[in-house]
Amino acid sequence: MQRFPQLASIALAAVLSVASVTAFAQVTVGGAPMLPTKDIIDNAVNSKDHTTLVAAVKAAGLVDTLKGPGPFTVFAPTNAAFAALPAGTVDTLMKPENKAMLSGILTYHVVPGKVDAKSLVKMVEDGKGSASLKTVAGGTLTAKSSGGKVMVTDEKGGTATVTIADVMQSNGVIHVVDKVLLPK
Q1: In sequence order, what are the beta bridge partners of 132?
Q2: Chain segment 105-127, per-residue pLDDT in tens
Q3: Is 81 strand, coil or helix?
Q4: What local confidence, expressed as pLDDT, does residue 143 receive?
């Protein structure tokens, strides 16, 4: 009779382990599971929708920073967002002589701290319809909520919509956006 509780405990532990692995793999971005046990870079490199962003992060020399402890909140533009920029923009930014400009644009997409969607929406509500977010680059992003969606506006007036929120990382959170945000 004493063996039954031990077997039940082992079975319960096995079920919980499988449930935990399943819960970690629930968020998929660019066809790849985003695991909260991995950092921003280790997850982003697996997303087919973020190959341009990953290449830009490498060209800007920001890999070690985004692998660091953070925490960081990253508004991550998709390949389609980069493709919507004027022709030649991405190629020009990727040139070694434009590394500082590229780094400035990329760090403009990063906010210090871990701001999940619930916190961001509360900030917008507390701000009576908008919230200002100071970026690592020193600029400001403005978040608003409309129709159940969160929009982020850059200093030039361009607006990106969060298409996938709360992609949890070991060193922060990623919110996928549909536009590249640009500082002044």
Answers
A1: 142
A2: 999 999 999 999 999 999 999 99
A3: helix
A4: 97
